[in-house]
Amino acid sequence: DTGVNYGTVEIHTNEKEVTEKEVTLHLLPGEQVLCEASTVLKYVQEDSSQHGVYGRLVCTDFKIAFLGDDESALDNDETQFKNKVIGENDITLHCVDQIYGVFDEKKKTLFGQLKKYPEKLIIHCKDLRVFQFCLRYTKEEEVKRIVSGIIHHTQAPKLLKRLFLFSYATAAENNTVTDPKNHTVMFDSLKDWCWELERTKGNMKYKAVSVNEGYEVCERLPAYFVIPTPLPEENVQRFQGHGIPIWCWSCHNGSALLKMSALPKEQDDGILQIQKSFLDRIYKTIHRPPYEIVKTEDLSSNFLSLQEIQTAYSKFKQLFLIDNSTEFWDTDIKWFSLLESSSWLDIIRRCLKKAIEITECMEAQNMNVLLLEENASDLCCLISSLVQLMMDPHCRTRIGFQSLIQKEWVMGGHCFLDRCNHLRQNDKEEVPVFLLFLDCVWQLVHQHPPAFEFTETYLTVLSDSLYIPIFSTFFFNSPHQKDTNMGREGQETQSKPLNLLTVWDWSVQFEPKAQTLLKNPLYVEKPKLDKGQRKGMRFKHQRQLSLPLTQSKSSPKRGFFREETDHLIKNLLGKRISKLINSSDELQDNFREFYDSWHSKPTDYHGLLLPHIEGPEIKVWAQRYLRWIPEAQILGGGRVATMSKLLEMMEEVQSLQEKIDERHHSQQAPQAEAPCLLRNSARLSSLFPFALLQRHSSKPVLPTSGWKALGDEDDLAKQEDEFVDLGDV
């Protein structure tokens, strides 16, 4: 790190005298200061009386940083979960969501060139932090410079090559940190795909191909992928990869999950006929009853739309972008109605239900499932990932989960650049599909903690990493776009490509002690069996085979193949139909039987894993959405208190185990580091590890009928509006 020293500044105002301490701005390699302003007051969010900290506001080509008096901050061993790249008062430019200005007590959205400059600046972030800066005591020229600079560098359209990602990669070439323990499969080689085929036993029916090496066939597809073995490779080239069933994953029983992108829409009847006959041949290759039965699942016209996801999240996030304590309590009274009207939790439920339906087809009916979508790069990524997470315990390990994201999202061509709107070129393209996936994963982690090697904190920091432009993982629309932009500017360095960091190297962001919070100490590892045991269990698949399996049709009804083929063709040619052939009452009955039967038995954490999707079972991901709101914390409580007690017990058990091992002269087990982070749960809050105890500066007065935490809901319903001082609770 390089540093910029701002020295000591005396600030005199009519209200108070402030002395700024000597503060240092830490810059990353390649980072440059663009503009700055002094004598800026950063308000304390939970304090409605407008108290805060004086300091300097700086905008670089990477972040907005506030450098204030650190005396009020907890800067000791208790704040062990620090991000090495982003400080507590840093906002990456890509993380800025909206900028507001306050003019004569009125809040207005800021954009473009301003004629008048605000006395107060409010920044809403995509990680749901809210920053408020008072500019009343700042010099007018500095106000103009910092406000204009922030607006321009966060909202103006950018060119890809102007992203800080490239400046950092060029400057940090010799400082690249790599984690030797990171064994994430990147799926950027033929060998990786062959390994995955072998792992899932899919290599009997599917083959890895290199027909798109150098992206000669299609820029949308990765250089290597997997297709059905009987399919000739030249078919891939026919319509630039469209209309080709691409393999995602194979089940233990031989069924497989496939995806396919639609063919381009054509008006010419001759071309339409050619497309139809092409799809007919493709379908005959993969659908060969009674041996191979394919169920098509059209996600473009019979499931969620991207517009629905975008609208729902826009409403949902507003519930957490709270400017002050008063606003929190005002909205708290309407919390449930506001939450329901956003439809975000319902969208999560629909995604999980769709994944369970597909799981039932594969697991119980032994059918192949073909996911259809216009480009197979949004909802296909989401649903295929959820299905694998539910069916494959390997995906529930940290390395397995990271490899899953690499395979289905990064190599699957999800347009992270557009969907996160990193270039600010089209707000309509910004849809939080990946965040929706992480929220669905959180529901599973929350309901079945011992099944996952990673924690909810891991998911939270992964969602934050979407907006840190030093990692290449979430900053391109496709592998082709990444590979073609890894060259350097200038003739003399053209030959050597840039070395871009991957987000999976967690040592870049966190120290080893902090990384222990990303690993679940309650994870139950799969017991290793000797060869004799494996032989005896060869045909059993955990507890799934104890489920009442719905009998798959040994031979389809007359005309089934023809109808299903026509249905596939209609969808891939872009002709909208109202209903899938297979979306029937029978499907719902199968789903309900499968779902109820699974939940009636004890959970096998290394087998099939289904979430509860009934009403109250789908919850708000509190750690991610509420972590910056002090009023929402439970002091010394929440899940962190439970975890702390469990870790204390684990530490005690480990200590006893070590004593036993010593008696047997065996090697000592390694000490667990996680417990030391959570040992004193009384000093932590439910927002841990993103907040320790927060000091409330004000004691809001509010009716008990609007505050759920004061008692049971039944009691609250009977009470009349009376007032309680929160400071006495």
From TrEMBL:
It holds the Pfam family 3-PAP. One of its GO terms (cellular component) is membrane. One of its GO terms (biological process) is phosphatidylinositol dephosphorylation. InterPro entries: MTMR12-like_C, MTMR12_PTP, Myotubularin, Myotubularin-like_Pase_dom, PH-like_dom_sf, Prot-tyrosine_phosphatase-like. The keyword Cytoplasm applies. Residues 187-625 form the Myotubularin phosphatase domain. SUPFAM superfamilies: (Phosphotyrosine protein) phosphatases II, PH domain-like. Keywords: Cytoplasm, Sarcoplasmic reticulum. Gene3D superfamilies: Pleckstrin-homology domain (PH domain)/Phosphotyrosine-binding domain (PTB). Its main location: cytoplasm. It is found in: Cytoplasm, Myofibril, Sarcomere; Sarcoplasmic reticulum. Acts as an adapter for the myotubularin-related phosphatases. Regulates phosphatase MTM1 protein stability and possibly its intracellular location. By stabilizing MTM1 protein levels, required for skeletal muscle maintenance but not for myogenesis. Heterodimer with lipid phosphatase MTM1. Heterodimer with lipid phosphatase MTMR2. Belongs to the protein-tyrosine phosphatase family. Non-receptor class myotubularin subfamily. This is Myotubularin-related protein 12. It comes from Saimiri boliviensis boliviensis. The gene is MTMR12.
